[in-house]
Amino acid sequence: WRARCHGQPGHSALAPLFRNALHDAVDLVAALRAIQADLAQTGPQDPAYGVPYSTVHVGTLHGGTALNIVPDRAELRFELRHLAEDDPAAIEARIRAAAAAIAPDIEITEDFAYPGLAIAPDHPAVGLVQALSGQGGTTKVTYGTEAGIFAEMGIAAVVCGPGSMERDGHKADEGLDMAQLAACEAMLGRVLEHLA
What is the pLDDT of residue 76? Predict the structure, then answer.
């Protein structure tokens, strides 16, 4: 999601006479953090995830043009990753109410959304991927893929791949060890044999 906060530009020598858009933005960040803390404490929990509750995360905050000018605009981007047991519309309503309490003209727009993936561990597609990968068991992950979109279209989807999000994901010098790549290559070979 994207939240746009509006203020009044003015010289910083007279800063208290103008509405500072960054002040509204950081108040909204504080409100989002409070919602996150409440979700962690009182929301549904699923210990199969590394983070067992729904999360609200602020990723960017931008505003202002110069130190001596009161910012008339600020924008923050944030996301919600929710458990299936949580109602995203209810969480969104809490976010919108918090924003309206800060300033009625804060604009919140949804940039994009995609469905999570839910597939039964005993689904035949899961067993096939386990056999082809040589790995047993399943795990839940907190990151998104296109798999939920495929599942909504009636296509059985299983997420399987090399690496570790905790160790490798979205970090400087991210990469995979050769053993992970070799295991992936071996699985792809078994996929080709299975399809032949």
Answer: 98
